[in-house]
Amino acid sequence: MPQIKSSIKSMKTDAERRAQNTATKSRIRTATKRTVDAIAAGDAEAAQAAFNNASKLIDKAASKGVIHKNNAARKKSALRNKLQAQNDAEAK
C-alpha cells in the first residue's frame, strides 16, 4: 500500500475508472450478443434496432478511450456484415 497521499488517491481513482471501463465493455458485449441473437432469429427490425444500440455504445466507448478506435470499427464492421448477410438472404 502506498504511503504518499497522492498515490493513495491515484489508486482510488484507478479502481473507479477500471470499474467503469469494465461495465462499459460488458454493455458492449451484451449489446453485441443481442444483435447476433436477433439476426439468428431472423427478426430484421429487432436486429436493426439492436445494431443501432450496439453501434452507439461502441462509438461512445471509443470516444471515451475505453476501447481503441480501430477495435470499435472492427466490431461495428463485423456486426454490419452479419446484418447485411441476413438482409441479403431475406431478399433472395
From TrEMBL:
Family: Belongs to the bacterial ribosomal protein bS20 family.
Function: Binds directly to 16S ribosomal RNA.
SUPFAM superfamilies named in the record: Ribosomal protein S20 (SSF46992)
Protein name: Small ribosomal subunit protein bS20
GO CC terms: cytosol; small ribosomal subunit
The keyword Ribonucleoprotein is annotated on this UniProt entry: yes
Keyword match Amino-acid biosynthesis: no
Gene3D superfamilies documented for this protein: Ribosomal protein S20 (1.20.58.110)
GO biological-process terms attached to the record: translation
Keyword vocabulary terms for this entry: Ribonucleoprotein, Ribosomal protein, RNA-binding, rRNA-binding
Region (Disordered) location: 1-29, 72-92
Organism this protein belongs to: Negativicoccus succinicivorans
GO MF terms, alphabetically ordered: small ribosomal subunit rRNA binding; structural constituent of ribosome
Polar residues compositional bias, start-end: 1-10, 83-92
Pfam annotation, one family: Ribosomal_S20p
